[in-house]
Design brief:
By secondary structure, this protein is α+β, with helices and mostly antiparallel strands. About 50% of the residues lie in helices and about 15% in strands. The strands form 3 sheets. Strands 2-1-4-5 form a 4-stranded mixed β-sheet, with no helix packed on it. Strands 6-7-3-8 form a 4-stranded antiparallel β-sheet, with helices on one face. A 3-stranded antiparallel β-sheet has the order 9-10-11. Helix 4 crosses helix 7, helix 10 crosses helix 12 and helix 15 runs parallel beside helix 17.
């Protein structure tokens, strides 16, 4: 773990109540000392007021839409947080808590398809966050270094850096794998078996089973409400879903690094961010590909998207690996020295998505938005985008986005009123925007 990651982890822990930090530290220490220990008395910690209060704080900070019951964070705050948490704690202690249905919405993906997103009720999110706070330190002690997604103190940048390091070491043959609908296809019974490897508290397991079995509510094209129960999957949008997803795929990580796994006989390296992963080796033969298919499909019961999964040799001219929004490519020095280097830069798809986002932020609907407010909104978005894509060689991508924003703003300002907008005399349009406060990437 990097120094920055350790610092981020410590900051997160500091925000928790001292008593809860102490419980988490003890659970983590016990799990690290005894790898086969199964925790049997956790429900009291989950239902404790300190845990629920910390869980509510996190849910409130994340915000989000209401579930099927229509209850919002603002309404809970208005009616009283303490009463809300006391009622929830009482239901958990008396074991009368029952989960509500999950509201399903669809958000567009980059390829034009729709991604299903499950939104639990806020009360269910709070209980899920409480369970997450107690189970996370236990399973974090088991997770391997190859896993980077949805983990405290780890980020996508860590995964990207591992890829770049291994390319420099000569592991240039890459299996770029894609799983089809991972969150919606996790088998419930197998997932519960993975949980029981560490947790045997029946009350906690029953909570998780409730969330897995919760009915999903959505509206059809005619606006009619329909409910159905899923026999597999965990809602992508549930607070605890990322942890459950990592717990299930941990067993793929485990067999990959076993004594008879590809780490030994292929000298391969696995880099995983949630359900996106790559396998890097000097040579990825049929045995390595067969191993991935057998363990993912045959053993875990998941489905590999064969249209998107491919084996690529990045030493070949023109070959590119896209991962987590970045492209890796073996490029020649532009200055004619003949030297080659590993180039990591924002992918074409990432730039295209950013352009589409900016089109939505700068369009005719914003004609009545005051210019300082519009520029302030753009600045916040651009800074966030740049912070993520600042790694590697991002200068060309940043220049492209700067040009795109300026062109969109130029057109926007020209149609705001009947009088054509012009920059101050002797000042370029670009300089005028900078004077107005627009950031330059």
């Amino acid at each position: 773990m990097t120094e920055q990651a350790e610092e981020e982890l410590s900051i997160r822990e500091v925000t928790l109540p001292p008593k809860l930090r102490g419980w988490r530290a003890k659970l983590s220490a016990k799990a690290k000392q005894e790898k086969r220990f199964r925790f049997y008395s956790l429900y009291g910690l989950v239902s404790h007021p300190e845990t629920l209060k910390a869980a509510w704080t996190q849910v409130r900070a994340n915000g989000g839409s209401p579930g099927v019951d229509g209850e919002t964070i603002g309404k809970i705050e208005k009616e009283g947080e303490e009463a809300f948490l006391e009622k929830l704690a009482r239901e958990l202690r008396e074991k009368t808590y029952r989960t509500g249905a999950v509201r399903r919405v669809y958000i567009p993906k980059a390829n034009g398809k729709m991604r299903p997103l499950g939104i639990p009720n806020i009360r269910d999110r709070v209980v899920q966050a409480a369970v997450l706070l107690i189970l996370e330190p236990i399973f974090e002690s088991d997770f391997l270094e190859c896993s980077h997604g949805f983990r405290p103190g780890r980020s996508a940048h860590d995964a990207l850096e591992v890829i770049r390091e291994n390319l420099a070491k000569g592991r240039c043959t890459v299996i770029d794998a894609d799983m089809e609908g991972y969150f919606d296809s996790i088998p419930h019974e197998k997932l519960m078996a993975c949980l029981r490897m560490r947790v045997v508290d029946g009350s906690v397991l029953r909570l998780i089973k409730q969330w897995l079995d919760a009915p999903v509510e959505e509206r059809d094209e005619n606006g009619r409400i329909r409910r159905k129960r899923n026999k597999q999957g965990t809602p992508q949008g549930g607070v605890i879903s990322p942890l459950l997803a990592n717990i299930y795929l941990h067993w793929f990580d485990h067999v990959f690094h076993a004594k008879n796994g590809p780490v030994q006989w292929a000298k391969a390296v696995l880099v995983r961010y949630a359900d996106d992963f790559v396998i890097m080796a000097r040579y990825a033969g049929p045995n390595l590909q067969r191993f991935v298919e057998e363990k993912i499909e045959g053993w875990l019961g998941l489905k590999i998207n064969r249209e998107k999964t491919r084996v690529v040799d990045l030493r070949q001219v023109g070959e590119t690996l896209d991962f987590l929004g970045f492209s890796f490519r073996y490029d020649r020095d532009l200055y004619g020295s003949g030297k080659r280097y590993w180039n990591m830069h924002p992918s074409k798809k990432s730039i295209a998505r950013e352009r589409e986002k900016l089109r939505g932020m700068i369009n005719g609907k914003q004609s009545h938005t005051p210019l300082p407010e519009l520029i302030g909104r753009l600045n916040r978005h651009l800074k966030g985008w740049a912070n993520y894509y600042r790694q590697g060689y991002s200068r060309c991508a940043f220049r492209d986005i700067n040009w795109f924003v300026q062109r969109r703003l130029w057109r926007h300002l020209r149609r705001r009123s009947q009088r054509q907008w012009r920059p101050a005399q002797g000042t370029s349009f670009s300089s005028q925007l900078v004077e107005m406060g627009l950031v330059q990437l």
